[in-house]
Amino acid sequence: MDLLWTVLLMVLVCSEAQNMINVTGELGQDVNLTCSFSSPDIIWFMEVQNRIRAGIGRTYSSDPIYFSPDLETKYSVSENKLLVRNLSAEDSRFYFCGRKDDGRTVYGDTIRLTTSK
Ligand SMILES: *[C@@H]1O[C@H](CO)[C@@H](O)[C@H](O)[C@H]1NC(C)=O
Ligand SMILES: *[C@@H]1O[C@H](CO)[C@@H](O)[C@H](O)[C@H]1NC(C)=O
Ligand SMILES: *[C@@H]1O[C@H](CO)[C@@H](O)[C@H](O)[C@H]1NC(C)=O
């Protein structure tokens, strides 16, 4: 998890929310979160504590990277989607998509995922 925490410290804060989308998924099911950016290179983050974002993965066209190897069993990034597998209560949180623009991260949607039975 060291890399995850490194990334986490790098992506601190930034509170401007663009689109706010609510998504509900059933516990134990998989759910796709969709980013409204049509960029071939989308970065996904999740809120791990109030206003602290951790990177999940980046699509890099079709050669995705994950910011920590253990994230890859839980999440899958492809095109403009983040697949969250086997939902549990801890998956209820905010997710953010963004893209790199001249080295800066430009945030797109804020997605609030909630779980239901
Ligand atoms: C999303 O859910 C929150 C909390 O339930 C609510 O305050 C907000 O209005 C909802 N937004 C949309 C776009 O449905
Ligand atoms: C999520 O999206 C991917 C790619 O479009 C698709 O193959 C998969 O079936 C979707 N899964 C769910 C649970 O919607
Ligand atoms: C889904 O998560 C539950 C715990 O939340 C676990 O017991 C179960 O084995 C997981 N299922 C799969 C297919 O990974």
Topology of this structure?
Layout: H1 2-10, E1 20-26, E2 31-34, E3 43-49, E4 52-58, E5 65-66, H2 71-74, E6 75-78, E7 81-84, E8 93-101, E9 104-116
This protein binds 2-acetamido-2-deoxy-beta-D-glucopyranose (3 copies).
InterPro entries: Ig-like_dom_sf, Ig-like_fold, Ig_sub, Ig_V-set
Keywords: Signal
Protein name: Immunoglobulin domain-containing protein
Walkthrough of the structure:
With 117 residues, the chain is mainly beta. The protein has one domain (2-115): Sandwich (Immunoglobulin-like), CATH 2.60.40. Helix content is 11%, strand content 49%. The chain has two helices and nine strands; from the N terminus they run αβββββαββββ. It has helices spanning 2-10, 71-74; strands at 20-26, 31-34, 43-49, 52-58, 65-66, 75-78, 81-84, 93-101, 104-116. The chain has a six-stranded mixed sheet with strand order 1-9-8-3-4-5. The chain has a three-stranded antiparallel sheet with strand order 2-7-6. β6 (75-78) and β7 (81-84) form a beta hairpin. It is globular. The site of one 2-acetamido-2-deoxy-beta-D-glucopyranose (NAG) has 2 residues, from loops.
